[in-house]
Amino acid sequence: MFENLSERLDKIFRNLRGKGYLTEDNIKAGLREVRMALLEADVNFRIVKNFIAEVEKRALGVEVMKSLTPGQQVVKIVYEQLVNLMDTEGFQFKVFNNRLTKVMLVGLQGSGKTTACAKLAAFYRKKGIKPMLVACDVYRPAAVDQLKILGKQIGIPVVSEDTKNVLKIADSALSMADKEMVNLLIFDTAGRLHIDEPMMEEVARLKTHIKPDYIFFVADATTGQDAVTIAKEFYDKLAFDAVILTKLDGDARGGAALSIKAVTGKPVAFVGIGEKISDLEIFYPDRMASRILGMGDVLTLIEKAEEAIDMEAEEKLARKMLKNQFTLNDFLKQLQSIKKMGSLESIIRMIPGLGRKLPADLKIDDKALKHIEAIIQSMTEKEREHPEIINGSRRLRIAKGCGLSVTEVNRLLRQFEEMKKMLKKVNTPQGRKHIERMMGGNRPEI
Ligand SMILES: Nc1nc2c(ncn2[C@@H]2O[C@H](COP(=O)(O)OP(=O)(O)O)[C@@H](O)[C@H]2O)c(=O)[nH]1
Ligand SMILES: [Mg+2]
Hints:
The structure is a single chain. By secondary structure, the protein is α/β, with parallel strands linked by helices. About 60% of the residues lie in helices and about 10% in strands. It has 3 domains: about 5-90, Four Helix Bundle (Hemerythrin (Met), subunit A) (Up-down Bundle), CATH 1.20.120.140; about 100-285, Rossmann fold (3-Layer(aba) Sandwich); about 310-440, 434 Repressor (Amino-terminal Domain). Helix 17 crosses helix 19. The model is unreliable at about 440-445 (pLDDT under 50).
């Protein structure tokens, strides 16, 4: 999903990564590309225009975080704007197991309404809700049968009647739901190939009659801006509450997902990601934004860096590393701050440029972190600063002090030596430049 958009954005930000500072020029060049990428993804042009203006305003005013490259900083802003664009705040689909919630699905023929009815019913039954389906698409000959078959397949009752009067069917369903103590009554409705007045009027009549708690507009994501235009027309007539975006599995561009909230004012609540009944997910704007950017690792790094790292201390440490003055004390401090962030190995591998330099077989076991900490803590201050003085008898004493074996003490010292060797390798003009960039600019004293 969204392959094209993710790929393009990834390339744009990779180019920005090499640029040093966020300047008006490099932001503009980058955003021009983002703009093209969004338009090619079939996002509504007015939305794209506002989006770019907003990102630009924020990017220009912002100070680049020391641990990020300019490209990453722009990714962060674009990411946050994408989340805003698809925001679901203010909407909550609430279903209770002690009363009835009435839901109506509307949309064009073929958008996935009938399938979505069954998916929703199955989704909520798993949560202890008692659902029932109502077949109100009385025009397409096979529509009622399709819902009945789906209902049978998942063991959920379907109300249908041999009449074209949908209000009558709705009445039967309401009294049946009351009798059976149903919690979630889902009305499948008719949709034509194009919007037409009689169809709209019938759905509007059904709405007035049953007074649904929620109306979901079902949109086929693969139709891009058409889905968005139709959503707007449905919204003007029916004022739906949220959108179920189907066939996202077949949507390589993402335009509908990105535009529908901005155009209708109503968020996507669920997404269909396949033909199977279980292929329904709650829609989370943040997850969708990171899927679109295809930059899970960079985003996670940014988030974690913001949460846990003391930037100044990091910078000092990086400089020490470059000067080859990195000691076991620094290692210990580093371990302690890294423990807050997650697995040591995953963090190291997320650092752009550095991750790739690490040997693939370098395994840092998280359980070993505690041991390493214990070993260093039972060393004297002098030993931590000058590990070369740690001879056989000191090793034995340290091992006893932390309750671990001499082998483990040896392993740590060996690992530390290897790490220093590795740092020496990174400590080339090119490596230094990279770290300088990570720290946000040229620092002549390094
Ligand atoms: N790939 C995929 N196909 C879907 C999805 N939702 C529905 N479909 C298919 O789309 C077609 C039309 O669905 P249907 O529920 O009959 O649409 P309706 O006319 O709006 O009721 C069917 O072949 C479904 O299997 C989805 O999320 N992914
Ligand atoms: Mg149908």
